Amino acid sequence: MTGLALSHFSAALLFAVFASVVFGITQREGARDQMRYGAYCFAMFVGGVIAAGWVMWLIRH
Amino acid sequence: MANSRSKSATAELERSSQNAQPLTAMAVIAPAVGWLIPGAGHLVQKRWIRGLLLLVCIVAMYVLGLKMDGHVYQPNSGEVLDILGFVGDVGAGGLYIVSRVLDYGQGMIQHATADYGTKFIIVAGLLNFIAVVDAYHIAIGKKK
């Protein structure tokens, strides 16, 4: 198995999608709460990535 | 506000404890099957959508990790961090067994994203551990 070279950001997005779905299903009861919590986790993952990116940019400049 | 939240959490915990069923065959089978095949612990309890979503997400994450040339850890390397990696990997159950049998994930890491692949594989296993615990909670009636 070789060859898949994702960019850093697309890898982080995929990671956020899969982890958020599992967190939503396992950490809440009821479809509505599960979807809401999954969306919250996704936003936190992606927001964290963007925030960390800006912090690294500021450190470098 | 924090006090009322704490009270509602305590009430929720008490309600969950009251709803919990004694140990049944399903409480053993669901986690075991769920470990071997991600999502299957939910599927055997007729939680079709949740089971399929868990199956797709965990398998996709593991396979993407392998496709990115991620490393699959072995149990007997002797390095502490490798042992932790193995604990994460082995959570994927059948996926880990198949990839070891087919000798996937044993090549040299030659590019930066391969390290992401290694993390994808570990996290897929860890997410499956969470799914297994969730299947157990459903089986004992702690969760619907």
How is this fold's topology laid out?
The complex is a heterodimer of chains A (61) and B (144).
Chain A: H1 8-27, H2 31-60
Helix pairs in contact in A: 1-2
Chain B: H1 2-19, H2 25-36, H3 40-43, H4 48-67, H5 80-90, H6 94-101, H7 113-139
Helix pairs in contact in B: 2-7, 4-7, 5-7
Structure summary:
The complex is a heterodimer of chains A (about 60) and B (about 140). Chain A is built from two helices and no strands.
Decide which structural class fits the backbone of chain A: mainly alpha
Number of DSSP E strands of chain B: 0
Number of helices of chain B: 7
Which blocks of ≥5 consecutive residues of chain A have pLDDT under 50?
Answer: none
Could you spell the SSE succession of chain A in H and E letters?
Answer: HH
Strand content of chain A: under 5%
Q: Could you say which overall geometry of chain B the principal axes of the C-alpha atoms support? A: elongated
> Got a strand count of chain A?
0
Instruction: Give the end-to-end Cα distance of chain A, rounded to a whole number of Å.
Output: 39 Å
Largest interface (C-beta under 8 Å): A-B, 19 and 31 residues
Structural class of chain B: mainly alpha
Sheet with most strands of chain B: none
Poorly predicted runs of chain B are none
For the residues shown, what is the average pLDDT of chain A?
94
Main β sheet profile of chain A: none
User: Between the first and last Cα atoms of chain B, what is the distance in angstroms?
Assistant: 28 Å
User: Mean of the pLDDT scores of chain B?
Assistant: 88
